[in-house]
Every structure is written in C-alpha cells, then in structure tokens.
Amino acid sequence: MQNKLATILFAMMLGLGTLTLAACDNDGPAENAGENIDNATENAQDSMENAGDNMGDSMDNAGDEMSDSMNEAGDSMSDSADDMEDNMDDSMEENSN
Predict the structure, then answer these.
(1) Which candidate among 22, 46, 75, 87 keeps its CA 20 to 30 Å from the CA of 3?
(2) Rounded distance, CA 58 to CA 52, Å?
(3) What pLDDT does 5 receive?
C-alpha cells in the first residue's frame, strides 16, 4: 500500500513538473516587457559605444590635422627665416662694397 501511494505521488509530481515546464514556454506580458527593456538597453548601449567611437575618430582626425598645420607653419617660418638671412647677407655684401 505504501509503495502504491509513493508511486502515485511520484507520478503526480512528474506530471506537475511537466506541466510547469510546458507553461514556461508561453511568455507573459511581464516577460515580453522585460525582453523589450533588455533590447532597448542593448540598443542604447550600442548607440553610445558607436557615438564614443565616432567622437574618438573625430578627435584623432582633428589632432592629425592640427599637427599637419603646425608642421606646415613651422616649415613656412623656417623658410621665411632663411629668406631673411639671405636678404641680410645680400644687404651686407652690398654695403661692404
């Protein structure tokens, strides 16, 4: 009798477990809302990462352009100084004659 009762209880527990697992397949409104929030959060995070990457790229480009401009300005100043030196040398030669 006790074996029979244990067997029946065990079968009922298995049946209840099976029904519980089957019910988990159906998403309720709270589950759907949670998934929507998760998706929105992931999309926002991706957008922020992309914006950060774009900003970093823009800053790198601006730095490169500034460096190029400074190099060009330095070269121009050096050329001007060389021209001034040449003019002073020419002027001193003319005055010494």
Answers:
(1) 22
(2) 10
(3) 75
- In degrees and rounded to multiples of 5, residue 82 shows phi and psi of -65, -40
d(C-alpha 97, C-alpha 93), whole Å? 7
pLDDT tens-digit series, residues 22-32:
555 567 788 88
> 97 by DSSP, 3-state: which?
coil
Amino acid sitting at position 76: S
- Measured in degrees and rounded to the nearest 5, phi and psi for residue 61 equal -65, -40
Both tokens of residue 65?
Answer: 């352009």
Strands (E), 1-97: none
User: Rounded to 5 degrees, what are φ and ψ at 25?
Assistant: -70, -25
CA distance 54 to 47: 10
Give me the residue label for tokens 């190029």: 68
Q: What is residue 1's DSSP assignment?
A: -
pLDDT digits (tens, 9 = 90+) for 12-24: 777 766 666 555 5
